[in-house]
Specification:
With 209 residues, the protein is of the alpha/beta class. The chain has 2 domains: 2-12 and 78-208, HAD superfamily/HAD-like (Rossmann fold, 3-Layer(aba) Sandwich); 14-71. The protein is 40% helix and 13% strand. The protein has helices at 14-27, 47-54, 58-71, 82-90, 103-112, 131-136, 149-158, 185-197; strands spanning 2-4, 95-98, 119-123, 143-146, 161-165, 180-182, 206-208. The protein has a 7-stranded mixed beta sheet with strand order 3-2-1-4-5-6-7, sandwiched between helices. Mean pLDDT is 93; it is low at 200-205.
């Protein structure tokens, strides 16, 4: 099974979540500067952790973030090339979605972009389980693809091959412990095919760790 993080990997949702974060924080009297990048170094990359770092109620903040995102006037676009990659990957192995975003948001975006039927499992946040715990419970998981240090942490804890993507929310240096780092969906497709086939080498545009 090929497991994907959602925000930053599949969905180009960073600006939506920053705006949502700014609104949710303002409601509790916290000002987020206009140039802030609240998710750039966050570990684990969850809304609950952001709230803890800011000294506010984690559960309430994450729930409010979920409400605001669903009420936003537009759902986020996909990262260019990811819809095609997902359809290609679905021909190779079952797909799973593992995200800190809540289930209703994930399902709404997948429906909007016609991707719902591609995933065997869609696992959102707010369940009380960490990504590492959920991933470890999937015995058929072979690859975890993410854009954050905590995605790579989860893969390593679960004994799954980790692939970091550099077009997401956190920079490549934050994911230096990934097995492979790729710079484009095209390079990601090569890395996935190479791993599933057992072929040696890094794959085009990929950095092997």
């Amino acid at each position: 099974m090929i497991c994907f993080d959602f925000d930053g990997v599949i969905a180009d949702s960073h600006d939506l979540w920053v705006a949502t974060c700014r609104t949710a924080l303002a409601e509790v009297g916290v000002d987020l500067p206009s140039d802030a990048r609240p998710f750039a170094r966050l570990r684990p990359l969850t809304f609950e952790q952001l709230a803890r770092d800011m000294g506010i109620d984690a559960r309430a903040f994450a729930a409010r973030m979920a409400e605001l995102a669903l009420a936003a006037p537009r759902l986020p676009p996909l990262v260019p090339g990811m819809a095609e990659l997902l359809r290609e990957c679905a021909e190779l192995a079952p797909l799973a979605l593992l995200s800190s975003s809540r289930q209703p948001f994930l399902e709404a975006v997948l429906r909007h972009h016609g991707l719902s039927g591609l995933f065997s499992i869609v696992a959102g946040g707010g369940t009380g389980q960490t990504k590492a715990e959920t991933l470890a419970s999937w015995s058929s998981a072979r690859i975890m693809i993410g854009d954050a240090a905590s995605d790579i942490d989860a893969a390593r804890a679960a004994g799954v091959v980790s692939i970091g993507v550099t077009w997401g929310w956190q920079a490549a240096d934050v994911m230096s412990h990934a097995d492979i780092v790729v710079d484009s969906p095209e390079d990601l497709a090569v890395a996935i095919r190479s791993h599933l086939s057992g072929a040696p080498g890094k794959g085009v545009g990929a950095t092997k760790r």
